[in-house]
Task: structure prediction
Amino acid sequence: MPDIWNQTDIEQAIRHAGLLPDLSSFFQTFTAWPQVSSYASWNFLPRPPYGFAVQDAAFDMPDGGYEVYIEAEQAVPTRPENYHDFYNAICWYHFPLAKKSLHLHQCAFPAVVDSKNKRSPQQNAATLFDECGVIMLTSNPELFALLAEHQWMDVFWHRREELQKQSAFFMIGHALFEKMAYPYIGMCGKVLPVYCGQDVLLKPYQEQLAFVDAGCAEVIPKYCTHTKALSTLPLLGVPDWYSANTEQSFYKNTDYFRPKAV
Result:
């Protein structure tokens, strides 16, 4: 069943995701679902490396599936009137190098399969990050180390000002956008770091985005080796991503901000 176009949901989903600041205004010009054939002509950012193919009832997925089709046809299978695939297209525009790196990483490790889902550990990790990934741009590696060790109160609250000045978060996982339209306690993503000088955090948005995209593309092979190599991030703890996180008590919920398993 097609999803119902809802401008309010889209604005809520992309509001705090580290995306183009005026992206919401771009989609305000639409009163109904745009055609998939128009996705490649959006002009809010340069065109991504692949086009978008309509994945309707007549679509014939080849043996080998999604990644094989992208490589063969240079187009991303995209279901019409579908939020999940719509947000995927938005991510391709913002992170073309990182998304291509994820795709190529999927293609590079098909041989050793996981008996549960017929995917290699590298494919599992790349898929998880593609769906649920967040990029942390930071000039202070210690802040990412605290996140990786689940020192939530320390990094999100006690060092909040430091975190806000020395870091920025960018949501690349397209499945997360659907969740951000209706945020709930328990929402988590998988985060990897892109380190930078403090000057990068002061650059104009599109220069910063280009740095994040290139940096993420470079570290994907390092981090997407296994799902356990990806650090968990409670999304609603990120400053400015959720209104209730302006109180210290918010971070005392250990069912959400869980200590790291030993």
